# Entry
Amino acid sequence: MAQPAPVEAVVFDLGGVLLDWDPRHLYRKLFADEDEMERFLDEVCSPAWHAPHDRGVPTAPSCAALASRHPDLAEPIWAWSSRSDEMIGGVDAGSVEILRAVKESGLPCYALTNMEAETYPVRRGRYPFLQWFDGTVVSGWEGMAKPDPAIFRLLLDRHGLMAETTLMIDDRGENLDAADRLGMQTLLFRSSRQLRTGLEAAGVLRRSVAPQRPGAR
# Structure
C-alpha cells in the first residue's frame, strides 16, 4: 500500500473540533424537561430546518416563518436567532493548542466550517484563535455546505492546495468521506489527545517523548 504524500496544509473544522457547538447548551436553559427539549430539536428547530442556514439563509426570517406555524413555541424558536452564541459551550483548549503547534511548525492552516453567515463574524471576534488561519471557507458565505464536494473543491482551488497533500480534520464521517473521494487525506476527530496522536502519525507534529525519571535507564 502506497504511503500518503507528505502533508503540506492542514484544514480544521470548527464546530465539534475547536468550538463546542451544540444547540442543547442554549435549550437546556429554556426547557425544564429534557425529553421535551429533544422533541423540539427533532421536530421543530430540527436539523433539516437548520440546514439552509448553513447555506446562507438568514435565521431571522426563517424563525419568523417557523414561529407563525408554532405560536406556542415562538420564544424558543426565536432564541435560535437571537441567542445563537449560547449554543457555544466553550472551546476545546487541547485542540486550540494543537492548532497553535501546527501553525508554529510552519504548515499553513485553513478552516472549513458549516456556519451561518451572520454568526461567523461574531465568533471570529469572540475567539481570537479563529484569526490564526491562513484562510477560512464559511458555508453560509458560499451558499454550499459540507458534505457537498463543491465546497471542498472551492477550498482547494481558492487557496491553491493539492488534494493529496492536504489533511482535513472533521468530527463527522460523512464530511471526511466527501474529502476522501476528492483525494484529500482525512482525520476523524474524537478528542484532542487522539487528534495529536493522529497528527504525529501523519508527520505533521513531532512525537512527544515522555520525560525520563531520574535514575531510569
